[in-house]
Amino acid sequence: MFEEKSMREILDALHTDTEKGLTEEEAAKRLQEDGPNVLKEGKKKTAAESFLEQLNDPLICVLLVAALVSFLLKEVSDAAIIAVVIIVNATVGVIQEGKAQKALEALKKLTSPKAVVRRGGTIRELPASELVKGDVVILETGAQVAADLRLVRTWNLKIEESALTGESLPVNKDAAFQAAKALPVGDRKNEAFMSTLVTSGRGEGVVIGAGMETEIGKIASIISAVPKEFTPLQKKLADLGKILSIVSILLCAALFGIAVLQHRNIMEMLITAISLAVAAVPEGLPAIVTIVLALSVSKMVKVHTIVRKLPSVETLGAVNVVCSDKTGTLTQNKMTVIRYYVNQNIYKASETAPNMPEEFLEGMALCNDAVITNQEELGDPTELALLRFAEGNRFRKEALETRMPRVEEKAFDSQRKMMTTVHRSSQGFISYTKGAPEMLLDRCSKIMVNGKVQSLTEVHKRQIRQTVDVFSSQALRVLAVAVRRGEKEVCEDGLTFVGLAGMIDPIRPEAKTAVEQFKLASVRTIMITGDHIDTAFAIARELGIAKKIDECMTGEELEKISDVKLKEKLKKINVFARVSPEHKVRIVKALKETGNIAAMTGDGVNDAPSLRMADIGIAMGITGTDVAKNAADMILTDDNFATIEKAIEEGRSIYENIRKTVLFLLSSNFGEIITMFIAVILGMASPLKASHILWINLITDSLPALALGVDKNDKEALMKRPPRKAKEGLFSNGGTACTIFYGCLIAAISLTAFLKLPWEVLAEQQKAFTLENISMVFQSSELLTRAQTYAFTVLGISQLFHAQGMQDVHTSIFSRKRGFNPVMAAAFGVGFLLQAAVTEVPALTAMFGTAALSLEEWGALVILAAFPVLAHEIFVLLETLRSQDTKGKVINEVRQEHS
Ligand code: ATP
Q1: Which of 135, 148, 325, 607 is catalytic?
Q2: Which end of the chain has fewer CB atoms within 10 angstroms, the N or the C?
Q3: 160 and 27, same structural domain?
Q4: Tens-digit pLDDT profile for residues 390-413
Q5: CATH (domain of 203)
């Protein structure tokens, strides 16, 4: 056990060195020998297992019985068709599952953690999978521990180990701790474990276990057995599917009962009723939704968004408030010091102040965790800006650190808004503190002016505050630097004020466009920042988020008001400044309680609660800590605000596609049921054979449904609409009417096609068009086969046309501004050809019991089948006329008012 061993023993055993780490060559050799530092996945299902799983469905079992019955009745072709349907259905299911799985695996790779290591004496960031035993890993606040480590150094290090121990309170870690005996994981204070999260402090450790050898690796098999998570929509659809299954089965049982009473061929009607039940039940719906959601996850990656939780794709479309950080999200996070204030004067960054206090530049370089090497810049942009400024003035961090090594520190946190480091120098201990000026100023009692330390008077303070206001109103981020000489322990009181640095962080131009787009889409943007109110307002004004300063509120003001008052204020406030992470939780809670669907961005450890509280928690991919990423639903890989707009657009589009697919499938199935039901109730022959129903279910239904699932919507139009209401279901806004209308229309045209022949025959014979006479006509099996072929063709092809209208119920198919959907074109073409093949290819005609059709017959049937799209065009025309009428009325009213 490593916790009992001394540091020396461990380092000797692992042949490593804490100062330099492993060499690159040695690390590569160990990686080759031991393999990558990853947790192995549980055993994957084989294709055969997935296939059998697909067959494990009650409806498929019913269908298998139907196939057996057909076979026993020597209806070999029916049995064969049913068998083909079952096989194709299961194969499609396996392929869909495979695709969804692949999308999720690709996602896992994207979210895989990184690790900061010391190799060959230099600090590098590399994928956690490349860590090997003996590597020296550096832990920062917010990071996820990438392997099991024996800690070498710790500075107030606290780690949350709930992934391993279930204990959610962070535990203190101490490199100096040595166990007398082997200890349980939770008590090993000198070790850090893979997958746990650093909540505060810093540390360094040597890798003692990697991959499956880690503590989490030992229980990885338990973790990989986490049950699948279903989205609310999937759950709703599964429930809907259950209700529809029961209704369809009852209807089909009724159909069968009536058929028995009417003394029809019992076996034939049994198979038809079973087929109808199987065809009518939208058992494919949850599968289609899963594949659409899973595919959307890979689509989202293209717009720089990683979706960690599938349900958030749905929720995204309903978001109506986006609360965003400022730094790095709305701004570029490319900080540069452009002004500074020392010795009671303001200077440009390009100038060197006379009597420039060394402590100012030393503080910037030493009280700083960023690293600048020849190849790269690592660390927080604020700190990098200060480091660049100090180095530009010839104060190099490395050289300073050799002269004045860091002995103690208190890390930055967004609550205190400052950070302190203590250094040993030839003149004793010296500590540097840097942070938000208001926070620092209250802790200063002296000021350094031209090398002399004086008491800090109210006059000094007023002048400093005025300078902060001047800098802030120019949208600069301001940081103050202070020193203290004396003790080794960190003390953030009685400091000596040295100076201020003003940094520019330009806005992201694309964020400005995104804010405008959000306004059109009725999505509100709220800026929540830890920065000064004037800096925040200056940036908010530039971005179009706020116009007046009274739309801004500070964390201090927020603390003084009640939750009720906050909810009231939230109607007007668009900028929250100098807030701490707890305030974010209050804001998002108040937003949610007033009926909003809120997205919230965050990056720090303390942002995790608000990210969890928001309807959509969004973590930053570049600057975000692993803790924030773990708590978020989504990660922005480019930290860019404009990406949220793209993600919401995508979310709306995906929801729209799912809605279209569901309504299309249900109206089509409804059409099939009504066609059969009306015919049987009226005592007519069955318009469709069992094989016809299954064919429609398999081909002309499924292909366009899939195409609708991946449809390209007119994004511009989508983003001009207000967001969907949270409680809005799939059938709101005319969904039910649409399903019933098109179901009835499809039934009407199919029955018309079915009755076309008897109508013609009876007209020729000058007989009345009665049910009795129709039955008489159908006694001719040749006529019946032809009439069934008509109904089958119209029903099949009408679905292809219906799907065209369903792509966008509000616009004509001739004037759509959407992108071309090749899947839809292919679904239409292939569906049409396959439908034609069933009547025109002799082998298939025999199997399906259909008749070959003439060109003339085809023409008439296609016209009939096009009725759904014709109805769609008429609706669009009426809608356009109505909206023109309303527009005209409004113009007239305005004119009248003016005259
Ligand atoms: P946002 O929440 O929009 O990202 P922010 O980055 O300003 O804004 P915080 O990171 O909480 O929010 O910073 C709050 C304040 O703390 C800053 O305005 C700055 O004055 C100070 N500050 C930021 N980074 C550091 C740091 N590394 N060391 C010391 N003080 C800092």
Answers
A1: 325
A2: C
A3: yes
A4: 999 999 998 999 999 999 888 888
A5: 2.70.150.10
